[in-house]
Amino acid sequence: MKSALLVSPRPDLFTLVANALVADGAEFAEGAGGVVQLTDALGRILTVFGDADLELQELRKVSLVGPDGAVVDTAHVSACVIECRWEDLFVETMKRLADLLPEPLLVVDGDDVVWPAGKVDPARVKL
User: By CB neighbour count within 10 A (0-12 exposed, 13-18 middle, 19+ buried), where does 123 fall?
Assistant: First the structure.
């Protein structure tokens, strides 16, 4: 499955993401730190996992350079794993979340490219 990380300094990142997506019609399920599934009008699914502990352990071992050239302090971030097969659905959802959530959000794609969540390029992002 294609995936990326959504990263933020907010410790309540998954709760904020889950609430925003559920308000958009997504379904929430308990277990594994929580799972949210958003289904679009074409039946395509985007899934957000609240348990990203393994990914955070790996993320904390590296230095990420944000889109503005600043180093991201990975010792104090939260993350959600986002799975989606469709780049356009992924990008649309990340833009919506960037507009709705209070803190700047970053996406770390499959090539470890760091994107502002509201400016992910659907032609270049690697899920």
Answer: exposed
CB 114 within 8 A of CB 6: no
- Long-range residue pairs from 24-28, CB within 8 A, at least 24 positions apart, any chain: 24/96
Count CB-CB contacts under 10 A for residue 84: 22
* Cβ-contact 88, 70 below 8 angstroms: no
Local confidence band at 62 (pLDDT 50, 70, 90 cut-offs): confident
Buried b (16+ CB within 10 A) or exposed e, 21-43: beeeebeeeeeeebbbebeeeee
Residue with the two structure tokens 């990263």: 7
Predicted TM-score of the model (pTM): 0.91
Q: 3-119 is classed in which CATH architecture?
A: 2-Layer Sandwich (3.30)
> Tens of pLDDT along 65-75?
777 777 778 88
Locate the domains of the chain by residue range: 3-119
